[in-house]
Amino acid sequence: MSSPPRSSDPRLTVAAAEPLSANALEDRLDEILDPVLSTRRTATRLAEAVAPLPREHQDFVLHWVAVIARTNPEMAYQFAAAAPQALARLDLASAEAWIIEAMDTYDRDGLYRGSAVFKNVGEFARLSRGTAAAVSFEDVAQVLQLFICGLSGRRLRLDTAARPHTDTETLFLPPSIALLPRREENFFIYKAMATLLWAQGRFGTFNVDLDAACAGYSDPERALDLLNTLETVRLEACIARALPGLAREMQKLHAGQLPDSRCAVLATPAATISDSVALLAQVYADMAPVHYSYTPVLQPERAAAVRKARLAKEKSEFQSALAQLLEEKDNSAVPPQPAERFSIQASGLPAGNGNASHELMLDGKPVAPPENVSQLMDSILQDLGEIPDDYLVAAGDGGYRQNRRDEHDPADVWKGVYHEEGAFFYNEWDCKRRHYRKNWCVLRELGVLPGNADFVDATLAKYAPQVAQLKRTFELLRGEDKLLKKQPNGDDIDLDAVIAAYADMKSGMELSDRLLTKRHKSERDLAVMLMVDMSGSTKGWINDAEREAVIMLCEALEVLGDRYAIYGFSGITRKRCEIFRIKRFDEPYDTAVKSRIAGIQPQDYTRMGAAIRHLTTLLNQIEARTKLLITLSDGKPDDYSDHYRGEYGIEDTRQALIEAHRAGVKPFCITIDREARDYLPHLYGPVNWTLVDEVARLPLKVADIYRRLAT
Amino acid sequence: MPGQIAPLHTKVLDADARLIEAEPYYEPLGGEIALFEAAYASQIPVLLKGPTGCGKTRFMEYMAWRLKRPLITVSCHDDLTASDLVGRYLITNNETVWIDGPLARAVRCGGICYLDEVVEARKDTTVVIHPLADDRRILPMEKRGELLQAPREFVLTMSYNPGYQSVLKGLKQSTRQRFIAIEFGYPAADLEKKIIITETGLDAQSADKLIKLAHMTRNLKGNGLDEGASTRLLVHAAKLMARGIAPRTACSGAIAEALSDDPEMLRAINELASSLF
Ligand SMILES: Nc1ncnc2c1ncn2[C@@H]1O[C@H](COP(=O)(O)OP(=O)(O)O)[C@@H](O)[C@H]1O
Ligand SMILES: [Mg+2]
């Protein structure tokens, strides 16, 4: 297969053009930033700062100002203001990373934090200038997420923050660590940090009011810092009991010394946060806080707020869960006096994590709670160390189940290195680093604004002869029920074959083993997924051609009676991949579907890999012997981030197609782009694509594809 | 002659009457033995539900030994046809000869027929067991025009892993409602430890750590793993360790690699193992 023709994309070859003048720049910026400009805040200053830059940088700035303004004009303004300074320190690739970081922050934390990233370009430049041994959060997030998930306890998310801490539900880790000379060592610091943060939750650091505990000291901040040191001693001892291998490695980083001999009491199994708080009073005067490379910080008020909200939520969830258990047991509504039917028996035996295990009892007998309820109990035990009596009163009814449906699956939380609710996550292939970026793309399924279904009738009228021909061709493709003869395996004896074999044998020939008959399933066992490019580049005649082609395909597939679905795709950047539902597999080809086909409109950009992965997943939920994924597109993968243009996007798309192929899906591409030839063979292989520049010729091509792929 | 390899004596298992002579080691998890015996006495077929490697096969071997009946196991797969179970005509010496399938053999000899991973079989295949699994207890052999009436001693059992089924491959109600179900899960920590030690002779402290590792991987179920480490995998790792393989290596080979091919998942499991050992 040929290598990706990088130079074939005209957008990649930048002509050396003259820089734009300050006036020209100002006009452009005025136009884009209009909503956030005023008489006192004009684009003049911005334009003057951008004017001295080389044309390539100017284009970069203008491009991104326009793109960011579509999300938020104020962010675009902040970017424009910071860009000249940034481009003096960062190359274009890093500058893009900086923009993405700012936009991610904006998505997550809003305008104030988002624009702070733009203003703080110095900080970004410093962190990104890592040594070769630097390990970034992105490098380790997936492994650490799985690691922490394996350690049990509450489901925890991972995210980045400048200083490592936890709010008891998310572990915040630095964006990059380059403290030690070797990559493995820096990875280990990440791991130790994450484990300590996990231990803060697991072993109850936040089960007392830490702010109150430090408030009485002359320097509460120093008190908190020292308390953190004491807690680290206690938690490391807990880790040594639960995870001796890890603790050994951690001790190597500080020679196994206690920061102060008075801390020894904290290393005993019975020690709790209260012991650390008590010891703080004794050592405050003369002990200095100690920080190891992996020591996190305490952020009591964040943790307290999250914990408080969780306590309230879990109490009511637990009580409803009990009500549900009662309902199941009694097979009736909650009885009038539900009190005192539940109790908790703490068996002295330590469970997996060294905590005493607690058993839920109903009417004096142990009940095995469902998985989600035992997780809930576990979380409550982590916060309170016990299940208090007032929790053991069944209350509410279906509310609990309702809640659970609203909340997303815990598995999604695991996926959410970023906080994206209700979305799908897909890996992306990074061809330079030759590995997958895990859960890199966030994809949503959206509806389509219906168009005018008349378009369908108009198309059918326009192509009446082709449609008739199409139907005839496809009728021939319809398979018949067949009795296969002379089979080596089968259900019945093929008498003709036996007689022939007998005759052969008598005349001294070898006896054939193909003597059986087998019934061939008459049913055509095929499912087709049509994937329609809805990126902005299809605007105009390509979009019309696509819609017409979809209609023709529907007519053909209706003849065959094969199952098929139609989805469109578009999006902007990895966090906004979009899939448009036009026809699901289980939907009939009716007026609603027709008006959605008519409503297929060009949207934004093309991030094809995620779309292929999502539609392959959908296709694989269908049981069929042959599964086709037919893409209708104008051209190649391309996203507004330059990163996805050219080789990266082509290679990710190719990888997605390889994955689809491995999953038993046959991909095929129908393209309406005349220049497509040079990279399509690389993506689809030399035979699995076709160029259709005239809709009228589509039927022949499609029948051809079918003969080749569906049999 | 140099390079000559002495032939090994491969024991050919006689599938017709696989009577188990020595008592298999089986650690009861709860009331399953009594339940099975009651079902057997009542001539009701039994469905063993549970994840792979949690002792279902071992349990069947144990029950076969206890009831002194031959055990005939069929591993189901998606090409398994009704003829594969019931039997078919073959041609030898100028004549057609009927050969019983394993199910027919089990019925004839009053054995225990164990259909392992039954949902893997094609849907039309599972239907042939229906008349055998209700109180008619007959096996129709259509091609021979024969109806086999199962003797009292015969029992049909099958296993099924509810956690790992795709939506498409569930067990049909008409099939499952003919069976008494016994649920198998991973044994509780102390039992599992006893099983590991008895099966492999590993020291108690290492067995404890293996069990912790198993629980960690079981926490990962649904978060990148389809299943956590089963008792079988722990037994494998323990066997390696008992032979002196370093624990981290043993866990990596016997547990991590057996659970996943994903490089990051492998790394995470290996990190978990090394934090214990
Ligand atoms: N209850 C048990 N008693 C004894 N050994 C067990 C038990 N459960 C599991 N094992 C061990 O685990 C291994 C796998 O169990 P197996 O019966 O093959 O699993 P399954 O049939 O459920 O897939 C056995 O070979 C045995 O070593
Ligand atoms: Mg496009």
Defining key terms:
heterodimer; A: 711 residues; eight-stranded mixed β-sheet; 48% helix; 15% strand; disordered N terminus; B: 277 residues; alpha/beta; two-stranded antiparallel ribbon; 41% helix; 16% strand; binds adenosine-5'-diphosphate; binds magnesium ion
Characterise the protein shown here.
The complex is a heterodimer of chains A (711) and B (277). With 711 residues, chain A is α/β, with parallel strands linked by helices. Chain A is 48% helix and 15% strand. Chain A is built from 26 helices and 19 strands. An 8-stranded mixed beta sheet of chain A has the order 9-10-16-15-14-17-18-19, with helices on both faces. In chain A, a hairpin with a 3-residue loop joins strand 15 and strand 16. With 277 residues, chain B is of the alpha/beta class. Helices cover 41% and strands 16% of the residues of chain B. In chain B, the strands form 3 sheets. Chain B has a 5-stranded parallel beta sheet, with helices on both faces. In chain B, helix 8 crosses helix 9, helix 9 packs antiparallel against helix 12 and helix 10 runs antiparallel to helix 11. Chain B is elongated. Chain B starts with 31 loop residues before the first helix and ends with a helix. At the A-B interface, helix 8, helix 12 and strand 12 of A face strand 3, helix 9 and helix 12 of B. Adenosine-5'-diphosphate binds next to helix 2, helix 8 and helix 10 of chain B. Adenosine-5'-diphosphate (ADP) binds next to helix 2, helix 8 and helix 10 of chain B.
Kindly estimate the percentage of residues of chain A that lie in beta strands according to DSSP: 15-25%
**Count of DSSP strands of chain B:** 9
Query: Which class do the helix and strand fractions of chain B yield?
Result: alpha/beta
Strand content of chain B: 15-25%
Distance between the termini of chain B: 48 Å
What's the main sheet of chain B like? Answer: 5 strands, parallel
